[in-house]
DNA sequence: GTGCTTGCAAACGCTTTGCAAGAGT
DNA sequence: ACTCTTGCAAAGCGTTTGCAAGCAC
């Protein structure tokens, strides 16, 4: 049931790289970073290890910016600020209340709140059954 | 300066399709929907018209769910709920305060707030100059 | 005619995956 | 041995784009 993991040096390096920064890095950044320590590491290995880390809960995705998924080693949910010019993602730990904050110089254009969870239809349906089905690439049809 | 738009029937149909639903449709959905009225319309045209509509401000993106960008004809920012099982995106107009809401049956797992705007570095830099540069696909490097 | 728009198909870019070889226990 | 993991390369898939033809004014 519980998969035993080898905890290869590659996996450790990936997790370490993600935890070493607060820039919410992309796969490309992580790859470049890890390559300085393990020059031979391949992109596929980065992807696969990020996936494992996410399943383990040691890494979360903070969304897609400019076509690249961005990751965080701080897994506790917290607000972020995304610069629409350069793509920087900044942690916002002490959530300000006004719309027009200027947190450390960050000027807010718009604010988006997203709740993640389970909708009525999926709540009703058998959990495991629909869960698997719904996660299939082409399976779902958001109607 | 101000581009004159033809407002082709294709463009109208795309905008109409997006406005016809509250499901925050994907390109695929929009294409299928518009094809029932304009069977010959191509995917590229859907993409190009969505782009124009976004630049005009008549359509906004509400994010990427399961690899597909999702759009909204209601351009005023408002919170959304994303079902992690089936990918549904639901409008939340009356924002509840607690974490454990059960709005119309939607059970919240986690909540994410994202601010979009301009970071210090980009604020300092000349607006137009860096703005263009920063938006380039490969140009930026979120450090 | 001029400039915006379209359909088509090819290209792009990020991500995933099949496979045979390698590592860890 | 057995299982997990890796590097490589190819494939997948959503999205973008070059181009010649079409449309609207």
Automatic annotation (TrEMBL), chains A, B:
Gene3D superfamilies: 3.30.1490.190, Winged helix-like DNA-binding domain superfamily/Winged helix DNA-binding domain. InterPro entries: FUR, Fur_C, WH-like_DNA-bd_sf, WH_DNA-bd_sf. Transmembrane segments: none annotated. GO terms for molecular function: DNA-binding transcription factor activity; transcription cis-regulatory region binding; zinc ion binding. One of its GO terms (biological process) is regulation of secondary metabolite biosynthetic process. Its cofactor is Zn(2+); Mn(2+); Fe(2+). CDD domains: Fur_like. Fe cation binds at residue 97. It holds the Pfam family FUR. Keywords: DNA-binding, Iron, Metal-binding, Repressor, Transcription, Transcription regulation, Zinc. Binds 1 zinc ion per subunit. Zn(2+) binds at residues 83, 86, 119, 122. PANTHER family: FERRIC UPTAKE REGULATION PROTEIN (PTHR33202:SF7), ZINC UPTAKE REGULATION PROTEIN (PTHR33202). Belongs to the Fur family. This is Ferric uptake regulation proteins.
